[in-house]
Design goal:
Elements: H1 2-16, H2 20-35, E1 39-45, E2 51-58, E3 72-74, H3 78-86, E4 90-92, H4 102-111, E5 115-123, E6 126-135, H5 142-224, H6 232-260, E7 270-272, H7 275-284, E8 292-296, E9 306-308, H8 310-326, E10 331-340, E11 343-350, H9 384-394, E12 398-404, E13 408-416
Parallel strand pairs: 8-10
Antiparallel strand pairs: 1-2, 1-6, 2-3, 4-5, 5-6, 7-9, 10-11, 11-13, 12-13
Helix pairs in contact: 1-2, 1-5, 2-5, 5-6, 7-8, 8-9
Length: about 425
């Protein structure tokens, strides 16, 4: 009955305590009267050192309480230290009858104890420390008392281990809460930076477009030889200047389009034949090398109507075609289309240089190319594919890439036939959904 009472009191201590130290203290308060101990102490191993600190105490003489926090016991020395190092109970039935403990007799007389039992607080992971019970009488009935205290020590160790795990979980949970709050702040900072970048690109693009338009107008006047005839060399120079201006204007228009496509309100919805954007892109995309063949596979007949932004779909396919032409100096570029399950899949496949696996995600980032070095063979600002994926996600779809070096690349654009019935592919800030890359 006494054992059951002791175990019950320890469990009660565990249920009512928030920290391991509280478990020890509550358990001592409830167990010591049951076992008849005058006072008791719990010593815990202090990290990797050989010292144990006093973690909890019960009924120590009041005059010693101010110094209890400074009490240290060396592992392997004295009954409490030996219990921890040898992982067994150390019982002293009568400290005054043991010549080997002569040094302890003065301490026992001053504190008022005659017998003690030190038991290791041992778990499957090791020894936590020692619990030592002090008695004012010599060890009458010590066998029964030692058995009871072994049960008490085992329960205290297990209970304290659980309490330590709970405390660790609480600390981890608090750290996760702090990390979540910090991450949310970082996300907001990233979104603010993205807004600032888009505003900057939009403003600077407008500012660049105005003087560039004037320059192109003057170049057109020069080409028409309104004021005076040009020499052959001057005509070549003017033609090169107009070509460079056209490329710069195309880049500025791309920047403006990227900053304008941040939410679905920028789309112009209409109903059209899904084959039309592909036909428009094939007819309107320039830059195909003379040694590169273009193959348009037979389009499905008939094709269901599509409701989306036709101009944006054409823009996506044009960007993929221009990319295929750029990286296929000779070979074949093949375009195809398929309709199934309420979605249309446009595919642009080439036999060009191909893209390494580690660069598959990079090429869809703004101002990035698979080869970003200054000595790269292919020019461009790295905006075509970034804009294409952004538009695809804005239209409720995405772009999937299959590619390998020296094999070629295949870009598949999957879009819903009715964008208004599909789940959004991008939020109001243009944040992408999870990618299949």
């Amino acid at each position: 009955m006494r054992e059951l009472v002791a175990v019950r009191e320890i469990v009660h201590a565990f249920l009512t305590a928030d920290r391991p130290e509280d478990v020890y203290r509550f358990a001592l308060e409830r167990v010591c009267p049951v076992v008849g101990a005058t006072f008791a102490s719990v010593y815990l191993v202090d990290g990797a050192s050989e010292l144990m600190r006093l973690a909890a105490s019960y009924n120590w003489p009041r005059r010693y309480e101010p110094w209890l926090d400074q009490v240290r016991v060396r592992v392997g020395f004295g009954p409490s230290g030996e219990a921890a190092s040898e992982r067994r109970s150390i019982e002293v039935p009568d400290i005054f009858a043991d010549p080997g403990l002569e040094d302890w007799q003065d301490v026992a007389s001053e504190l008022g104890f005659r017998a003690l039992i030190a038991l290791p607080l041992q778990t499957s992971h090791g020894v936590l420390g020692t619990v030592t019970f002090y008695f004012d009488e010599a060890g009458a009935g010590s066998a029964e008392r030692a058995g009871l205290l072994r049960i008490v020590a085992g329960q205290m160790a297990a209970t304290a281990e659980k309490a330590a795990l709970i405390a660790a979980l609480r600390r981890t949970n608090a750290a996760l809460v702090d990390s979540k709050a910090e991450l949310e702040q970082q996300v907001l900072a990233v979104l603010d930076a993205k807004r600032a970048k888009d505003e900057f690109l939009n403003n600077i693009s407008h500012e660049l477009r105005t003087p560039l338009t004037a320059v192109m107008g003057y170049l057109a006047l020069l080409a028409e030889e309104v004021d005076a005839p040009l020499t052959d060399r001057q005509r070549v120079d003017v033609a090169l200047a107009r070509e460079a201006s056209d490329r710069l204007l195309c880049l500025i228009d791309t920047l403006l389009e990227m900053t304008a496509t941040t939410h679905r309100g920028a789309l112009r919805m209409e109903t059209f034949d899904p084959r039309a954007p592909l036909q428009d892109a094939v007819a309107g995309t320039r830059g195909r090398p003379s040694a590169t063949a273009l193959v348009v596979e037979p389009l499905p007949e008939p094709a269901p109507a599509m409701r989306s932004d036709r101009a944006r779909v054409t823009r996506i396919l044009g960007s993929l075609l221009a990319n295929a032409y750029k990286f296929t100096p000779q070979g074949t570029v093949t375009v195809s289309m398929a309709v199934a399950g309420g979605r249309v899949a446009y595919r642009v496949r080439d036999t060009g240089v191909g893209i390494p696996r580690e660069a598959h995600a990079v090429i869809f980032e703004d101002f990035r190319q698979a080869d970003g070095s200054l000595t790269r063979r292919h020019g461009g600002a790295g905006l075509g594919l970034a804009l294409a994926r952004r538009l695809a996600r804005l239209l409720g779809g995405d772009i999937v890439l299959e590619s390998a070096p020296d094999v070629g690349s295949a870009f598949t654009v999957e879009l819903p036939l009715d964008m208004e019935l599909a789940a959004p592919g991008a939020d109001e800030l243009g944040a992408p959904p999870p990618s299949a890359d």
